[in-house]
Amino acid sequence: MQCANMLLRKILRSSVLPFAAQHGMKKDLFPLSRTLSLSLCLKQDKSEPSEKLDLDEWKKVMKSGLQEEVSETVSEPKELSSLAAARETLEMWRLAGRAVPENISEVQLKTFMECPSKSAKKKYLKYLHLKELHKKNDKRKMDEKRERRLEAKDQASNTDETKKSSFLCLWSSTMDRAYNWRAAQSMIFGQPLVFDMSYEKEMSVREVTNTVRQIVLSESCNRKSVDPFHIHFCNFKDDSLYHREFINQYREAWGKLLITVTEQCYTEIFPKDKLIYLTADSPKVMKTFDHNKIYIVGSMVDKTIKTGVSLARAKRLGLETAALPLEKYLLWSTGAKNLTLDQMMRILLTLKDTADWKKALEFVPKRKYCGFVNRPVKELKKTLDLINTLKLGKGWEEVETRFAKNHPKK
């Protein structure tokens, strides 16, 4: 009998216990091993009272095993079991056709379990279900909107491609040839217009980029005009900020521009008596556009307005200066009287073609002036003098004589 007990223990240690430990069943095997060992030990005595003792021991062993199992189940966390039960009830309600959300978090489950009554639980689940439906509808609408936008883009691209017919392509190519032909003629017969490119040191990198953009707009406006200028870039140095920005703007077309680019100063190319430097700081006001003169525009954009820089340069070179008659024709309201380079180009082109200051000054931004002056400035000054004399109560005879001269009796 001892040999059998030893054999049973070896079997349990070698095969059964490692298997149970691997699969988490080691605790369940301890009561079974105890019952087997006790039964084998009790079977040694074959008398009748031994059978009673064997049964009593068996009951004790079974009771101890049951108590251990109950203690293990009690030791499990109650929250997990309650959450699982709540999930099962939700699945049952979903199968029954009630309004239950498809996805629910643990926090929502806990709030669902804390609801005081069944009706409150139903209302809470209905609220979650409606919230989930709203989210799905919003997502569906966003997807549909994105799809419609993509379809509209595709349709627009297709229509643009269809619009580009052979006639339009031929028209654009012929217009480009016509513009280039005018620019080429202006290089031989046109009136020169000089851009002074010697202000690089007085500007920041951002101001230089803005200047180059304005000059690019000026060049395109000049090329499309009826009678373009022959543009000269004077004091232009290779590998300068101006040069790099022009290459960035024009790229491959920089070498094909129908303009004159030189490192020389304009005083070395043209006679001084024909040069007029256009600057807003000049005391002399430009009255008419002269086709025999050569106008110089300073290639400078200054955010912090530097007064007198271009005027000082012109005086140092001994050149004549002029300013646009902005106050003579415009009721100036706010802002400085400095214009961008492309606005200056449009004004000069309009003056060259029409010699009309009102048409030319329409290119001044409307935020800077209230309107055009209807009368000349001299007449306005005369009326102001008359108003002042009437206020002071002097010179009535003078006023009467003037009125008689202006309004004679019929």
UniProtKB/TrEMBL annotation:
Residue span(s) of domain SAM-dependent MTase TRM10-type: 179-371
Annotated InterPro entries: MT_TRM10-typ, MT_TRM10-typ_sf, Trm10_C_MTase_dom, tRNA_m1G_MeTrfase_euk
Molecular function, one GO term: tRNA (guanosine(9)-N1)-methyltransferase activity
Comp. bias regions, Basic and acidic residues: 140-158
GO biological process, one term: mitochondrial tRNA 5'-end processing
GO cellular component: mitochondrion; nucleoplasm
Keyword set, alphabetical order: Coiled coil, Methyltransferase, Mitochondrion, S-adenosyl-L-methionine, Transferase, Transit peptide, tRNA processing
Classification via PANTHER family: TRNA (GUANINE-9-) METHYLTRANSFERASE (PTHR13563), TRNA METHYLTRANSFERASE 10 HOMOLOG C (PTHR13563:SF5)
Name recorded for this polypeptide: tRNA methyltransferase 10 homolog C
Species this protein is from: Panurus biarmicus
Gene: Trmt10c
